[in-house]
Specification:
- By secondary structure, this protein is α+β, with helices and mostly antiparallel strands.
- The protein has one domain.
- It has 4 helices and 9 strands.
- Strands 1, 2, 3, 4, 5, 6 and 7 form a 7-stranded mixed beta sheet that branches. Strands 8-9 form a two-stranded antiparallel ribbon.
- The longest helix has 16 residues, at 40-55.
- The chain is globular.
Length: 196
């Protein structure tokens, strides 16, 4: 009985090797990950922490997440980062920006762009965990490829973007009377047509 119980517990909490890798933002042909729930916020915050540690910066962490995530996810990441970490706003510099999250069973990988010597670089951070074990950094790989500076994706920023100015509705009042060659008309001069 004890052997069966231990075997059942082992199988229940062992990551499954053939689980399809899900991604966010979505990648063609891959299942979509839901980073608003665990392990999303934990591994995104962990990747930002690792990139911050590697960068050697000594300032408040300013972070950015992929577009489309719920405000509660941004709050969870900020709380997990601690120390006054704040979401990116337009114009912020030295931003740590999560580009993509990939999860497959007990393995997660996060691509994060981070500042290093005035240039943004890409880093992939791999985590292992899940079940009853916490997610821990397994390795981090720093790509020697410059990345573009991040653009703020916070829900507040997306909502605060100015909308295009509305066009003025056509007036229901008749056009003012104008005189054309001694005749009075209610149409503008450019719109007159000869009488048949």
């Amino acid at each position: 009985m004890t052997t069966r119980l231990l075997a059942a517990l082992f199988l229940a909490f062992t990551p499954v090797a053939c689980t399809a890798m899900s991604t966010y933002p979505p990648t063609a042909g891959k299942p979509i990950s839901t980073p608003n729930v665990s392990p999303g916020p934990e591994v995104m915050a962990g990747a930002i922490k690792e990139a911050y540690r590697v960068s050697g910066l000594d300032s408040t962490v300013v972070f950015n997440l992929p577009a489309g995530l719920q405000s509660s996810t941004w709050t969870r990441v900020a709380n997990t980062l601690g120390n006054g970490a704040k979401p990116m706003e337009a114009g912020d510099l030295n931003v740590f920006s999560v580009q993509q999250l990939r999860v497959s069973g007990g393995i997660a990988e996060v691509d994060v762009v981070y500042p290093e010597r005035g240039v943004y670089q890409l880093m992939t951070v791999k985590f292992v965990g899940g079940g009853l074990s916490p997610w821990k950094v397994d390795w981090a790989y720093r790509w020697v490829i410059p990345a573009t500076a991040p653009i703020a994706n916070t829900p507040e920023t997306l909502l605060a973007k100015p909308e295009p100015a509305p066009t003025e509705p056509a007036s229901s009042e008749p056009a003012p009377a104008t005189e054309v060659a001694g005749e009075s008309t209610t149409e503008p001069a450019a719109a007159t047509t000869p009488n048949n």
